[in-house]
Amino acid sequence: MGDVGLYVADVSYFRDVVVAKGAFLRPITRGRAEMSRNTFALGVPVAREMMTLTLCFLLMSAAILIVSLAADPALALSTFTVNRTTNESDASTADGVCDVDTSTTGNQCTLRAAIQQANANSNPSETDAIKFNIPGDPTKVKTIRPTSELPAITQSVTINGYSQPGSAQNTRERGAINAVPKVQLDGSLAGIDADGLIVQGASNITIRGLIINRFDRSGIFLTSTDGSDDNHFEGNFIGTNAAGTVALGNGNTGVEINGLNDGNVVGGSAAEQRNLISGNEGDGVFAGTDGTDTIQGNLIGTDKSATGDLHNGGTSNNGEGVNLGGQNSVVLDNIIAFNTSDGVQVRSNATGTGHDIGPNLIFSNDGLGIDLIDNTNNGLGPNGDGPNTNDGGTADDADTGPNDLQNFPTITSATTSASTGDTKIDAFLDTVPSTQYTIRFYSNPRDTGEGKTFIGDTTVTTNSNGTFSVNDFVATRTVPVGQSITATATKFTAPRNTSEFTGEPRSVRSAP
Ligand SMILES: [Ca+2]
Ligand SMILES: [Ca+2]
Ligand SMILES: [Ca+2]
Ligand SMILES: [Ca+2]
Q1: Residue 277: what are its φ and ψ, rounded to 5°?
Q2: What's the 52 CA to ligand 2 centre distance in angstroms?
Q3: Which residues contact 41 (CB under 8 A, 6 or more apart)?
Q4: What is the DSSP letter of 449?
Q5: How much distance in Å is there from the Cα of 390 to the middle of ligand 4?
Q6: pTM of the prediction?
Q7: pLDDT band at 385 (very low <50, low <70, confident <90, very high)
Q8: Where in the chain is the domain with CATH 2.60.40?
Q9: What is the CATH number of domain 393-510?
Q10: Average pLDDT across the chain, whole number
Q11: 57 touches 108 (CB < 8 A)
Q12: CA 387 / ligand 3 centre spacing (Å)
């Protein structure tokens, strides 16, 4: 008799299932990584002989039960649980099981073998899962030290470091990250030119909850092979120690995204998706070629507390926090600080427009907070190319280049009233006529001019001369006298080009 498969729509709809030895359960719904072999094994007592089913349907209409024959239950299941830190390859990628040693009972599964088996699983439309259950003291970090580069990930998979006992996801929406990852990929033995994890020509890959440090090249490397869309890199510490307090940088970039690949997300809107990307020798995040990406909620250049200097760029002066090429990317809700070049740089690139940058907390970078590279204007220096010059007046901001070299607003007045606490700002924008723009305002420590604290925004429409004056904009918080005000302009409709920050920050004066 062949193996008996029991297919159900949702395991929560039944109880007390008793099946024959060798039977298996598989959810019909795809992409539910948590519906794994382990999940079912906990609730399914297995008898020796013929199957007996006692099903209690809690929601009758929603349950689907199909009993059928299946050739190989192992191929239908797609969760691989890494349970050792060593380097062996999978013994056979044809068996659907992550096991480096078929002569020993049970599965001995390394990360290398898990990636090999997930790549080889003949289910390219399904999202496999790689989990971790490395034995030992759960309070201790488990270190995987590859002795050569790991195989590129070429099929959809979720690698979830937070499945390791003792780990914990971040719960803070902003500021410091309190995640406790427990699986470390240490690249110090992986060799010259080794990247940490490589995504190549595959979509819907999630890399979550790992500490990735000391690789010769980048921590996560998405190659220029087309078809690497909609991948998520979240909840990781990339370039630091496990505590997020010391730089153990990768030799190149923290997260490097190449090619005409769209929809890749570094971080995300949820607390548990925020990455720490600091201490790397090159850029924090390079999304520098042709794609459309989202970089959201990350700490880039700080320690885990979000205040200490753990800059990207090492001792060089060309480590940007975020380096953008491509088009229409979004850089939002990040803390980007202390990096050795610009906070965010939009590279000189013919297609590099539509990048919406902000609100973020950007401060103490060695270059500009936001730098649109205009080689014809200033020439590329060690920290980007410095502040651009607005082409206002009759020129109507017609220049082209990264983010169409969008003109920035000028702050003409900033005052704080001692009696009301109101900070009022006047600003002036001179750009394309009869067009809507969002102006975002920021306050900064005295005599600095990036964008440290977001204090509100307003949307305006320029007149037929391309100008608009903002009068008495009231900031969302009181800015002390002596601090400085900057702003950006972002075109309201696509391409959502964001400007550099105000060229000359305006010190807040006491309201008369
Ligand atoms: Ca295998
Ligand atoms: Ca074995
Ligand atoms: Ca510039
Ligand atoms: Ca311009």
Answers
A1: -125, 90
A2: 30
A3: none
A4: -
A5: 5
A6: 0.85
A7: confident
A8: 393-510
A9: 2.60.40
A10: 86
A11: no
A12: 4
